[in-house]
Amino acid sequence: MGAVTTPKQDRSRATRQRLLESAVACLAEHGWAGSTVTVVAEHAGVSRGAAQHHFPTREDLFTGAVEYVAEERSAALRALPVQGRTAVVAALVDLYTGPLFRAALQLWVAASNEAQLRPRVTELEARVGRETHRIAVELLRADETRPGVRETVQGLLDMARGLGLANVLTDDTARRRRVVAQWARLLDEALG
Amino acid sequence: MGAVTTPKQDRSRATRQRLLESAVACLAEHGWAGSTVTVVAEHAGVSRGAAQHHFPTREDLFTGAVEYVAEERSAALRALPVQGRTAVVAALVDLYTGPLFRAALQLWVAASNEAQLRPRVTELEARVGRETHRIAVELLRADETRPGVRETVQGLLDMARGLGLANVLTDDTARRRRVVAQWARLLDEALG
């Protein structure tokens, strides 16, 4: 099922993929207000008609892009090699400092003011949050049957999100490295 | 100097104050794209001309509002009573979950895409960040001459920001309380 595709299906899939990547890039660069279907189609080198064939409405396109961002983030997390906790913490935090986080942040904030976006983004963020937590627990080899461990991991992901936000207007890399090194130590002690 | 004011000066100051508060409320509710000088003036019950007398441009109005937000946040922090570390952590986190944080977040994200806003918001956020850190160190009675203590407090404020972000689309209160209780324990141990 679906393993064999025609050249036409391949082209259609490639176009769709390019539109999603362009939608993420436009969101990160221009924000929600500056990201229309026309802008994204131009960025992707696709006609407006073709863009609307794949995504009938602006909400469809950007909800699709959020889904895409979410899947990319989860895949990047799952692809992390088995390594020490300090390295895992650094890698987890890194996921919140690139263009994927920037695009998600734009949508998140837009969804807080746009009734059409809000339920879709809320549902998706809850799903992504659960998945990210699950993967983090695994990578950190955290034993959630012990009291406080679940909240310890949740707090780490909240901190990672806050560090991502601190990196939006300025390059916060140097400060972030020192904070991450210190809290990785505290986390390692807490997880035992 | 300035202790004696005329009724006219008082009225002018009250109008200015109402405009700033309305600007924060509009930002939190409608986002940057939906927050024009006209919308704010209407919300404040002030004529558009009077609004423009106080704030000639849209950037002036919202930069003024960010300043106002920043001063309100610092004042709220400084007004915290002397209390145990767990209570201080909860109070610090609370500052990131109300309409003031929501408004600041809207401006922060808008500034990442608007060249006219960016330098002003960046400078202000750096200033507010330093001030918040200074007050947090004092409230937590943290000894920054000990290695790692500075980064421990910074990480806590990053986590508070991340928890604020998690509260924008949904009411995250119940989860946040558990995370804060656990991390207050870890912080208390780390600060000694």
Automatic annotation (TrEMBL), chains A, B:
<keyword id="KW-0238">DNA-binding</keyword>
<feature type="domain" description="HTH tetR-type">
    <location>
        <begin position="13"/>
        <end position="73"/>
    </location>
</feature>
<feature type="DNA-binding region" description="H-T-H motif">
    <location>
        <begin position="36"/>
        <end position="55"/>
    </location>
</feature>
<dbReference type="InterPro" id="IPR050109">
    <property type="entry name" value="HTH-type_TetR-like_transc_reg"/>
</dbReference>
<protein>
    <submittedName>
        <fullName>TetR/AcrR family transcriptional regulator</fullName>
    </submittedName>
</protein>
<dbReference type="InterPro" id="IPR009057">
    <property type="entry name" value="Homeodomain-like_sf"/>
</dbReference>
<dbReference type="InterPro" id="IPR001647">
    <property type="entry name" value="HTH_TetR"/>
</dbReference>
<dbReference type="Pfam" id="PF00440">
    <property type="entry name" value="TetR_N"/>
</dbReference>
